[in-house]
Amino acid sequence: MYPVIDYDKCEGVLACYEVCPVDLFDVGNNEEKDIEVAIVARPEDCIECEQCIEACPQEAIRLVEDE
Q1: Residues 46-61: what's their mean pLDDT?
Q2: Strands (E), 8-67
Q3: What are phi and psi of 57, to 5 degrees?
Q4: By the 8 A CB rule, do 9 and 58 touch?
Q5: Which residues neighbour 47 within 8 Å (Cβ) at sequence distance 6 or greater?
Q6: Which structural domain, as residue segments, surrounds residue 6?
Q7: CATH number for the domain including 15?
Q8: Can you tell me the distance from the alpha carbon of 10 to that of 12, in angstroms, rounded to the nearest whole number?
Q9: If pLDDT is split at 50, 70 and 90, which confidence band does 61 have?
Q10: Which of 4, 9, 38, 39 would be a feasible disulfide site paired with 28, CB 3.0-4.6 Å?
Q11: What distance in Å separates the CA atoms of residue 26 and residue 41, rounded to the nearest whole number?
Q12: Is 48 left (phi over 0), alpha (psi -120 to 50) or beta?
């Protein structure tokens, strides 16, 4: 499993980026909202700790099954 971010909800707090113990996320730009947002850069590194989900104040992250 790995995290997916709902960018309609994301406000660029970057809490997920800050708490991830395996550096799964990078920071990129959401040009539509003109904010920096976390990007799932290394989904294969996810350890399913769910810290990113708990840290997100907008509840914009969920884990999905690997395809």
Answers
A1: 98
A2: 25-30, 35-40, 61-64
A3: -70, -20
A4: yes
A5: 21, 22
A6: 2-64
A7: 3.30.70.20
A8: 6
A9: very high
A10: 39
A11: 6
A12: left
User: Can you tell me the distance from the alpha carbon of 47 to that of 53, in angstroms, rounded to the nearest whole number?
Assistant: 13
In this predicted model, what pLDDT tens digit does every residue of 16-44 receive, in sequence order? 999 999 999 999 999 999 999 999 999 99
Provide the domain count of the chain: 1
How many other C-beta atoms lie within 10 A of the C-beta of residue 59? 10
8 A C-beta contact, residue 52 and residue 61: yes
- 37, amino acid identity: V
